Amino acid sequence: YLLAASLRCIIAQRLVRRLCPECRRAEPASEQAAALLGLAPGTLVYEPAGCDACGQTGFKGRVGVFEAVRVDDTIRRLINEGGDEVAIARHAFARSPNLTAAARALVAEGATTPEEAVRITRREQVDG
């Protein structure tokens, strides 16, 4: 009861490597990466190249990937009734993007690579 009454929001975060803005290069997404991320085959994504600005790594820093779930009356009821994780997650993510969707958005804007997004997507599937 106390948990359901106290929770207002739940936030999850993962970090992915940020592509170097100086040397990233656009390439069509591989079929495998496109399928795993739900992108159209051949979608242009950015890949690391390497330059002096990033120490030849192609990456410079990290960027957070977030998901936030607002704990509403339905989630409170599910918690109080001992609802399972699947039922709670189904309701929570019906209107909120999950980590996979947030990572896909970062790939689409060229902030990170499909491989980085897939890395946290797999972790999400193992955790959840």
Q: Give the termini distance in whole angstroms.
A: 23 Å
- Count of strand segments: 4
| Oligomeric state of the chains in view | single chain
Indicate the low-confidence ranges by residue numbers: 124-128
Q: On the 0-100 scale, what is the average pLDDT?
A: 88
Shape: elongated
Output the helix-strand order: HEEHEEHHHH
Radius of gyration using CA atoms only: 18 Å
Percentage of helical residues? Answer: 40-55%
Distinct helical segment count? 6
Tell me what you see in this structure.
This protein has 128 residues and is an alpha+beta fold. It is built from six helices and four strands, in the order αββαββαααα. The chain has helices at residues 2-6, 31-37, 73-80, 85-92, 99-108, 114-127, and strands spanning 9-19, 25-28, 44-47, 59-70. The strands form two sheets. It has a two-stranded antiparallel ribbon with strand order 1-4. Strands 2-3 form a two-stranded antiparallel ribbon. Helix 2 packs across helix 6, helix 3 packs antiparallel against helix 4 and helix 5 packs antiparallel against helix 6. The longest helix is centred in the last third of the chain and has 14 residues, at 114-127. The protein starts with a helix and ends with a helix. Mean pLDDT is 88; it is low at 124-128.
